[in-house]
Design a protein that fits this description.
This protein is of the alpha/beta class. It is built from 14 helices and seven strands. A seven-stranded mixed beta sheet has the order 3-2-1-4-5-7-6, covered by helices on one side. The protein is globular, with a radius of gyration of 19 Å.
């Protein structure tokens, strides 16, 4: 991660222009937009060392709720680390389940919630300075509008899709929040393997592979983009322990065939990520009405994750 001053500079640029200086990222997701609960049901991560995209931090909280031993996190956006510590600080406070959701959905103002819960006292050192500066410089509505996307899952349905946002599990996580820690790696997916310094039992890459057109913008051929990402996964598997798994990607609406996107081109995807080499887990989709209306989908609303499993005895070169 860069220096605190560079993070503040990133944030100011984001608020002013709506994206980072190099356009690698835009806003922060305040909440996960995946059915992470159903996805993680397919894996046993209790006592496991995990690596996950950071993004909204919700995947991290759910992994710890499921008994993960440790979770390292990566993201191209350095501001996600500060948001993780902000959310963890909220969970460390006496905030109620209802107020936590209100905070994330914008029903309460950021600054008001911060002061009411005395959040600053629980914050990590650099993140404390970061949020103190941002909240002192910008109006809370500006922060919410310019730094964050609006949550895509309806508030009254969020408990279906994110495990720790089930009310009972929320309070269970709060009791153990001091044990929720991350080692943050500021990296895009293409350079991540060069920065990994240990092995993992479980790696979660979210839906990064839905952005292959942007990741491999210099490659024209769609199947070559898929093969390039597959090679990246094979290389990443060097940092998997024996029998470890990589969730290569979370795929929204698996039955949607969109030839403009290589990972959603069903024929090409099945050719490169064949079921001979990869596992497919299908589960109920998050009810993203906008996506379904856009593509005219009225049924078969299923999401999936594609999984690479490290074979027993495979060399750790």
């Amino acid at each position: 991660m860069g220096s605190l001053s560079s993070d503040i500079e990133f944030c100011q640029y984001l608020i002013k222009y709506g994206q980072s200086q190099n356009s690698d990222f835009k806003k922060i997701y305040p909440l996960c937009n995946e059915n992470i609960n159903a996805c993680l049901d397919n894996f046993n991560i209790e006592g496991k060392n995990c690596l996950s995209v950071l993004s909204s931090s919700d995947q991290i909280f759910d992994m710890y709720l499921r008994g993960a031993k440790s979770v390292d996190a990566f993201d191209v956006n350095p501001l996600t680390k500060h948001f993780f510590y902000l959310k963890r600080s909220l969970l460390s406070s006496n905030i109620s389940y209802e107020d936590y959701l209100s905070f994330l959905y914008g029903d309460n103002k950021f600054k008001e919630s911060m002061l009411n819960q005395k959040i600053y006292n629980n914050l990590n050192g650099k993140s404390r300075i970061f949020w103190l500066y941002i909240f002192s410089k910008y109006h809370e509505e500006t922060i919410r509008e310019k730094m964050f996307y609006y949550p895509s899952i309806k508030k009254d349905e969020i408990n279906k899709y994110i495990g720790y946002l089930n009310k009972d599990k929320f309070y269970k996580l709060k009791k153990n929040i001091k044990n929720v820690k991350i080692t943050f790696i500021n990296s895009d997916i293409k350079n991540l393997t060069y920065k990994l310094e240990k092995n993992y039992d479980f790696i979660y890459l979210s839906n990064i592979f839905e952005y292959l057109n942007e990741i491999y913008f210099s490659i024209d051929n769609q199947i070559e983009k898929l093969e390039a990402f597959k090679n990246l996964i094979i290389n990443m598997s060097k940092n998997l322990n024996e029998n470890g798994k990589i969730v290569v990607g979370y795929l929204f609406t698996i039955l949607l065939n969109d030839n403009r996107n290589p990972i959603k081109n069903t024929e090409l995807r099945n050719k490169v990520f064949s079921e001979k080499e990869f596992e497919y887990h299908i589960f109920n989709s998050v009810d993203h009405d906008i996506i379904y209306k856009k593509y005219g989908l009225t049924e078969y609303k299923s999401d999936a994750c594609i999984v690479y499993k490290k074979k027993k005895g495979l060399s750790q070169n």
